[in-house]
Amino acid sequence: MATHEGSTFKRCGCRDDNGKLLGVRCAMLRRRSGTWSSTHGRWGYQVELPRTAQGGRRQARQIGLASQEAALEALQRVRVLLDLAGQDPDDLIQVADLIQAEIRARRPLPEVEEVKRRLHLGVNLRTEVPTVQEWLAEWLKDKPDLTRNTRRSYSSHMKNHLVPHLGRIRLDKLQARHVEAMFTAIEEVNERIIECREAGDTGAWAKLERRRVVSLATKHRIRATLRSALSDAVRRPDLPVTFNAASHARLPSCPRKKPLVWTADRIKQWEKDGTIPGEVMIWTPDQTIRFLDHARKYTWLFPLFHLIAVKGLRRGEAVGLPWANTRLVDGQIDIHTQVVQLGWETHTCTPKSTAGERTITLDATTVRVLRTWKRHQLEAKMALGAQWPDTGLVFTREDGQGWHPAQVTDWFHRITRAAGLPPIALHGLRHGAASMSLAAGVDVKVVSAELGHATTHFTQDTYQTVFPDVAKAAAEATAAMLKPAAHRA
Length: 489
Description:
Elements: E1 6-11, E2 42-49, E3 58-65, H1 68-84, H2 89-104, H3 112-121, H4 132-141, H5 148-166, H6 176-199, H7 202-207, H8 216-235, H9 245-248, E4 260-261, H10 264-273, E5 281-282, H11 285-295, H12 302-311, H13 315-319, E6 326-327, E7 332-335, E8 338-342, E9 345-349, E10 358-361, H14 364-384, H15 405-418, H16 427-439, H17 444-451, H18 456-463, H19 468-480, H20 485-488
Parallel strand pairs: 4-5
Antiparallel strand pairs: 1-2, 2-3, 6-7, 7-10, 8-9
Helix pairs in contact: 1-2, 1-3, 4-5, 4-8, 5-6, 5-8, 12-14, 12-16, 16-17, 17-18
């Protein structure tokens, strides 16, 4: 082990008659007995450091410590840090540079284990480890291919949760307990928001800036954002990060919400007290027919709702569907674009996943609906002449402009209320289309591909719903197997 010469000393800020600092020469630093005064002066240390890369001499020197023991401890810390480098010249220079930089910045000396780990990883010690806030900003900046919706979601998680709770922590110091503490704090705010709502306390509510309750699903998305950012940090060779704290942070599981069908009993309860039994509700096939029959009164909207209800398109896919991708002779539609809503603004982009870009096959009835609609649209175009905008979209308003996604949702709810149907989200039509296809015996692989899912497991787990009549038939068929042979005959 190398020997690094150093010593401790005591000095004060007293000056002589000429105004010069006395430093270690001040008589008040010692008592008459020769021992050090406990009330006058401050301790310090100095140690010879390895030469700089240019060959210059230098020292590690620090003053202002409370006791000689503190000075000796700091001196020993410097020696131990230098010993970690062994006889490697470059490592010695790096460790000395790090010690010198920390002292000049008036920061505590680095932990021995941290420097040892970074030397073992081959990480350049001169690289300053960023905070969580600094890394998140750099990470998001280096992701130019993100969709605008995804970027907006990441930015929201960072601004509202990750940076306020974790931003000041140095990246390599982040632990799972820090992440768990963030979620605990979020839940405490949730409880205060709910209390303010129930008590009608507008003053306290205003202090909470009318924030929404953060759901468990949102917490999982927040953790997923942090986990993705930390995974990239772990892969960076210049960062001493070997541990993904978000992956190890405990969070209650969040099972996918199973769609529930509006059965007669559920409708009766809803009509009585407004109870909606689940977060995701869908209609029975008869209820969907009732909706479409009522939607026929709205010429400019019926074809759009028919296509969503039968083929399960997403709202943005239907709104952004161009005629160029609609092949009525073949009875097929190519899904390559979608309209995404950001606030009130919209933009057209490709589906967010590879599976989302797909071809769906149309039934004969849907082909007839779209052909009738196309004729109607051409007639309106000829009537307006040059005033008709050439958007190339399948579904347009009476003036030829494309539909805003929010307008489609608003009209959906209006028609639902006019038809006297129990409420569902527009996305519930997609759930219903998937459930009807699976109940009709269509292979799950076909259904999954046409919905644009990456796996059949997701399709079955999230979208498959047993309609009451299908479940009843299955129950009767099972019970029939237990009847005596004479009864079955």
